[in-house]
């Protein structure tokens, strides 16, 4: 906003000096306003605007291969095996479906195997 104002375009030297003084006064008022806004936020209990630190050098980012390697004796835990592999199936049961109870436009999409556990307490 203030960058667009150019006092050198004014021909009158007194007016140019007053113009520069006015711009300096406006810049000081804007900076004081920001300080007062921060102080007001602090007094209200708010955090105010965070001050961001400049980004660090991003050259040391590890690759996928390095992350998968063993680091300082630590290995990744083994992948979990499915619970169904531990169960012994004692009786397979095929459940019939009455076609009379199905809608007219019902189409067979395939079969699905499930395991039912009878837990006794």
What does this structure look like?
The termini are far apart. The chain has two helices and no strands. It is elongated and about 105 Å long. The chain has helices at residues 13-43, 64-68. By secondary structure, it is an all-alpha fold.
Q: What's the SSE blueprint?
A:
Elements: H1 13-43, H2 64-68
Distance between the termini: 78 Å
Beta fraction of the residues?
A: under 5%
Structural class designation: mainly alpha
Taking pLDDT < 50 over at least 5 consecutive residues as the criterion, the unreliable ranges are none
> What is the alpha-carbon Rg in Å?
38 Å
Total E-strand runs: 0
Number of helices in the DSSP assignment? 2
Task: Give a quick precis of the structure.
30% of the residues lie in helices and 0% in strands. With 121 residues, it is mostly helical.
List keywords for this structure.
mainly alpha, 121 residues, single chain, elongated, 30% helix
